[in-house]
Amino acid sequence: MSCKRLQFSRPLQRWGGRTWETAPRHLLALRDFDEAFLDRVPDAGVAFEPCAAGFWSLPPDPAPSVVVLFLHGGSYSAYAPDDPWYRALASRIAAASRVAVLSARYRLAPAHPFPAALDDARAALAAARDRAGRGGAAGLAALSGLFDLTASGRSYATRRFRGGGGDPIFRDGPDEERRSTIRDGLVYLGRVDGDGDAREDDVERVLRSLPRRRTWCCWRRAPVGDAELLETLRDGRLSPRFAPSLKRLPRSLLLVGDAEVLLDDTLALAARAARDGVAVDVAVFERMWHDWPLYRDCRAVGGGAVLEEADAAIALIAAWLRRHFVDV
């Protein structure tokens, strides 16, 4: 099974190598990243209906036998489906696809460590199945996915923010950005101190064990204890990139920006899935950063300028849903 990769390019909005003074307005907005720049206005035609698993985003006359289960970001320890940027995104997917979207509310670490979020996602999936009247998940769409809690991808170094290029949300050096992801993984596991934070010695143990640092002739081997902690984070239920098999994964659409530090997470998962026989499409949006569809309105620079790549990503998800699951 081959992996189909789609490259989305907008030549007029290229910004690699430019200074911020000559960059497009939506990138100027991200120079000083803040949650105030996130899209907070849901689609006006979508209604919201609470339920035990979270809430539904309901477009007018939704498809009767297809639903979408929406799992918000935050590394299993932050945010909620009710946050306005996630509510806005779910509503836009619902409106564009004319499909009901269930935004799941899952318990967060460290108060509720792994597998609490996974168990809650499974319960929400059961609720979605009940509404759709189908037996199982038919497809997976993932946006800027975090598929490797060991942060081993090279894009942590090649795509980090540097002046006018890279991912503007991730500005620290590659090792520090890796530490941030590893901390998230350890918090999800419940390996925290009395304040609920990951222990820095654990973070350093994982970082030391990543197979990327060389002596003059060979890879540096990690101590046994460090390697064991690394393998814990590579559990396929936490880091699906390292799952023993992805053959049970349904048809998948993976969207990622080619400027974001998680680019390698998506490409590695797609390659593994394709080798395991999964029908997988990868949409790589040129010059886009982490979770760019959440920044559709870019109100930070005034004037209500619309980020066209955000609309394009939502339109792609909607077209994929309708092609494979609605209009069949």
TrEMBL record:
Q: What is this protein called?
A: Carboxylic ester hydrolase
Identify the InterPro entries for this entry: AB_hydrolase_3 (IPR013094), AB_hydrolase_fold (IPR029058), GDXG_lipolytic_enzyme (IPR050300)
Could you name the domain of life of the organism this protein comes from? Eukaryota
Entry keyword Repressor: no
Statement: the UniProt record of this protein carries the keyword Hydrolase:
yes
Q: Which keywords does UniProt give here?
A: Hydrolase
SUPFAM superfamilies the UniProt entry points to? alpha/beta-Hydrolases
Q: Name one Pfam family in it.
A: Abhydrolase_3
What GO MF annotations does this protein's record show? hydrolase activity
